[in-house]
Write a sequence for this structure.
């Protein structure tokens, strides 16, 4: 089962930190974090925290894709957001399995993960907070920017995971993480490329079509333009 | 039986509005059959005020029209609930009598929460402030004796003892000493989250009440007493709200507010002895379920999150219960009276230095006399003694046995 909100009833756990006082029943200590990496000569506690942060970012990605897929007016974007959301959910599964396979706890939320979640929450909130003062085209641009930001971080996370794999000695930890990287990283390349290209296309479409600017038509006209965007692309 | 509000029909938001006459409820008797009916009313008033003010704050951070409309509609329903609840209090109660009711809520709510709190860090925070509100009850009860010549036990029905707690004059802290470490939103027991949200709302309402009603009096001692204790209530709001994890999104916080309101109305509907008030709790429960479901729809659509992951599978098995907690309060009095706060830590009074921020703060605010001590001195002067209602024997702390010396 894909858990995208590891709350208390779903096994949520956390580490002690300045400023927080987690429930002692749900505390994860440094020994537990380091244990899976004990033989690998790495900073196991940091690696566990980083994996938690990467997993949290993937989880937040599923939330983002569900949200923008539900609210975009454009059929092509809706279909693509749904597809990317399904793949992101799969990434959550892959990384959760890898963490569990090496003896970690996918329900552990590290301090770094909390910071990541706050940033991602802000990104997601940006997609609706000001929608009353944006026209439909601008609203689409904000949602796409949120996706681009999320995919940029995601891509960087998996790139660095690939480097971590190369730095690990042969063994079960390296093997589990290498399998995850091999499965996910190519898709992350595609996700980021799609977000960049789509932003460029959407922007250039407006640059070269003055009638799409907000000042040139009412909201309904702009919404109609948004719905019609990318309709010339194959398969749409 | 497990109660999952997401499985209940609830009431649509548009069906929740009521006429003036429906909202203008008949007040309960000045001395209700069950005093805890009054405390439930006082608490739910605070809960609804918090809900309304939270919603206003949220609305000031967004301009999405769909969200704003839903917030405004849900908020108006909450505002009507607040009036339907608060208008149950009888106008024959003086502000001071109502204040004694507020402090009884503070004591018995906090004590019950602490007794049922699974997280020892949060339990400590509750115990710490419990002894302070307990002391306020004693100070106000003595003001009641002094001004009206009446005994607060007529209001509390002796369900809550009245005797000194941690003396208010030493409760004054530098603001930084009221800040605590917060729980972690993923690892927090849902019961803990609701305990904290509930006590924040209760203390906030008490602060608001004292800030506004301290000026209802002409007697200088009354005005001074409210002025001083209102500041401790502000400290308590700071203390308790700092336990909440700021990681949650606005919409998630909205959902949590509604869920907590569902839990409280569900709790009180079960224990209410007045059939008319019980029907009101049941009506508001149905409304809150509708409000919760509306908030959950935004969680799903705007944040792509599944409310069934965010929320527990059902309400806690144990309803929040307003009841007498005398033994527990005595136990906390006996063991924690000398606790103080220093740099966010709970320490024994002997560990607080002369240069500590709160020591310096007390030297400023207490410089020209302390109204919470003056009210006891005046009562002694006027009546030949002080007022207490110690039903379970002598005070568990020897130094606080009558005559009290702070």
């Amino acid at each position: 089962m894909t858990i995208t909100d590891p709350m208390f009833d779903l096994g949520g756990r956390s580490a002690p930190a300045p400023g927080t006082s987690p429930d002692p029943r749900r505390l994860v200590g440094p020994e537990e974090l380091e244990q899976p990496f004990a033989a690998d000569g790495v900073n196991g506690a940091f690696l566990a925290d980083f994996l938690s942060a990467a997993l949290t970012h993937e989880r937040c990605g599923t939330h983002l894709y569900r949200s923008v897929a539900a609210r975009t007016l454009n059929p092509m974007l809706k279909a693509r957001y749904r597809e990317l959301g399904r793949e992101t959910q799969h990434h959550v599964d892959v990384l959760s399995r890898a963490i569990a396979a090496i003896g970690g706890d996918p329900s552990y939320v590290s301090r770094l993960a909390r910071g990541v979640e706050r940033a991602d929450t802000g990104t997601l909130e940006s997609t609706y907070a000001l929608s009353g003062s944006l026209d439909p085209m601008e609203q689409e641009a904000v949602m796409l920017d949120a996706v681009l930001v999320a995919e940029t971080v995601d891509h960087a996370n998996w790139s660095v995971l690939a480097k971590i794999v190369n730095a690990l000695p042969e063994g079960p930890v390296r093997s589990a993480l290498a399998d995850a990287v091999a499965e996910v990283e190519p898709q992350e390349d595609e996700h980021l490329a799609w977000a960049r290209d789509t932003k460029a296309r959407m922007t250039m479409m407006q640059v070269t079509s003055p009638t799409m600017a907000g000042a040139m038509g009412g909201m309904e006209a702009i919404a109609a333009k948004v719905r019609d965007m990318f309709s010339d692309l194959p398969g749409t | 039986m497990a109660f999952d509000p997401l499985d209940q029909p609830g009431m649509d938001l548009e069906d929740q509005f009521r006429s003036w006459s429906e909202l203008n409820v008949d007040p309960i008797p000045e001395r209700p059959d069950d005093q805890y009916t009054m405390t439930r009313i006082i608490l739910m008033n605070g809960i609804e005020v918090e809900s309304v003010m939270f919603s206003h704050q949220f609305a000031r951070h967004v301009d999405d029209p769909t969200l704003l409309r839903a917030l405004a509609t849900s908020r108006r329903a909450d505002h009507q609930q607040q009036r339907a609840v608060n208008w149950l209090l009888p106008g024959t109660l003086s502000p001071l009598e109502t204040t004694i009711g507020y402090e009884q809520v503070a004591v018995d709510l906090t004590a019950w929460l602490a007794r049922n709190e699974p997280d020892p860090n949060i339990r400590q925070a509750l115990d710490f402030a419990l002894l302070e509100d307990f002391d306020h009850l004693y100070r106000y009860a003595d003001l009641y004796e002094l001004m009206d010549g009446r005994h607060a036990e007529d209001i509390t029905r002796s369900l809550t003892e009245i005797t000194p707690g941690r003396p208010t004059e030493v409760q004054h802290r530098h603001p930084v000493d009221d800040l605590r470490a917060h729980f972690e939103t993923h690892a927090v027991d849902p019961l803990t989250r609701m305990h904290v949200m509930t006590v924040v709302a209760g203390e906030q309402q008490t602060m608001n009440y004292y800030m506004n009603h301290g000026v209802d009096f002409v007697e200088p001692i009354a005005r001074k007493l409210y002025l001083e204790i209102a500041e401790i209530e502000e400290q308590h709001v700071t203390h308790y709200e700092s336990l909440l994890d700021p990681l949650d999104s606005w919409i998630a916080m909205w959902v949590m507010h509604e869920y907590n309101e569902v839990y409280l109305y569900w709790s009180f509907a079960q224990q209410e002895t007045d059939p008319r008030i019980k029907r009101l709790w049941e009506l508001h429960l149905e409304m809150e379920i509708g409000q919760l479901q509306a908030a959950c729809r935004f969680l799903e659509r705007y944040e792509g999150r599944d409310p069934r992951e965010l929320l527990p599978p059902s309400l806690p098995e144990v309803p929040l219960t307003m009841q007498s907690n005398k033994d527990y309060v005595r136990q906390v009095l006996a063991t924690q009276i000398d606790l103080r706060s220093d740099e966010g830590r709970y320490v024994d009074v002997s560990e607080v230095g002369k240069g500590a921020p709160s020591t310096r703060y007390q030297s400023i605010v207490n410089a020209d006399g302390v109204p919470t001590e003056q009210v006891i001195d005046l009562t002694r002067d006027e009546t030949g003694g002080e007022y207490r209602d110690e039903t379970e024997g002598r005070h568990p702390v020897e130094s606080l046995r009558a005559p009290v010396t702070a």
